[in-house]
Amino acid sequence: MRRREFITLLGAAAWPLAARAQQAKVATIGLLGTGSAAAQSQWTAAFVQRMRDLGWVDGRNLTIEYRWAEGRSERFAEFAAEFVRLKVDVILTHNTPPVLAAKQATSVIPIVFATAAEPVDTGLVASLARPGGNVTGLSSQTTDLASKRIELLREVVPGLRRLAFLAQPDNPYVVFDMRQAEAAARTLGLETASLEIRRAEDIAPAFEGLKGRAEALYILPDPLLFTHRLRINTLALGARLPTIHSLREYVEASRSDVLWTKLVGPVAARGRLCRQNTARCEARRSSDRAADQVRSRR
User: Fold this and answer.
1) Whole-model pTM above 0.70?
2) Which of 46, 179, 249, 251 is an S-S bond match for 258, by CB 3.0 to 4.6 Å?
3) Which domain holds residue 268?
4) Which residues in the chain belong to E strands, given as ranges?
5) CA 267, 288, 156, 4: dihedral to nearest 10 degrees?
6) Which residues pair with 58 in a beta bridge?
7) CA gap 170, 198 in Å, rounded
8) Which of 119, 139, 159 is the last residue of a domain?
9) CATH number, domain at 291?
10) Are residues 164 and 285 in the same domain?
11) What is the mean pLDDT of the chain?
12) Which of 131, 146, 157, 170 is nearest to 241 (CA)?
């Protein structure tokens, strides 16, 4: 989730609070962060500032209950249930698994997600045009670029034959992304291997198991892998594995030979295809520079 996407959702997050304001009562937002407070501090600061701009000041007419899962998916349901017990006015979160947990916990409290992949197919909303129920937010279209990432990785790693996927298989988004990425890999004649990461302790053994089995690495985005991104990127560098991510946040202040594709800002449902074409062009333009970075590490 990018900072500007988070800001875009603030108006939606503020909407369920209007009734509370009319009654001069302090409204409460339950903010469920998938990572740690430190890792998501920029997004949180942007959120608090924008709410202030909209007239909602934490400690005055607003209370924000923060809960940080730190990449542990089992905590999503726990925190969602806690928000229900606290009777918060709105739940704000991002990524598919915590939204699903919140939806299972309540059908009454409004839920706003800053980004979630395939919200229709995963059952978060009825449709993009008419979400229905108590859930709304921004749809992430990064799965549509899965095949392009495989093509880009093939371009910058000449002779690539074996590709490994690092994934948290319990995340519905990961299932969609991997399905498309594996299909693209098969089309290009690549051999693939999938390594499942369900907890932090699985990371190091996964890289041990990769020895001799892969020539490049595809990381599927997930709160657990984001929380431990520095460790993952360091291990990939040590294994001399060119790596591709879907989001730049996974590589900022980390490796210089990691590739990522990005969408420029939040994408409205009706305009997403146009914006994705822009991202594809940008990915092609950067392929030569990325290849130089990969080769410089060899």
Assistant:
1) no
2) 251
3) 143-296
4) 27-33, 62-68, 90-93, 111-117, 135-140, 162-167, 191-196, 216-219, 243-245, 258-260
5) -20
6) 62
7) 8
8) 139
9) 3.40.50.2300
10) yes
11) 79
12) 157
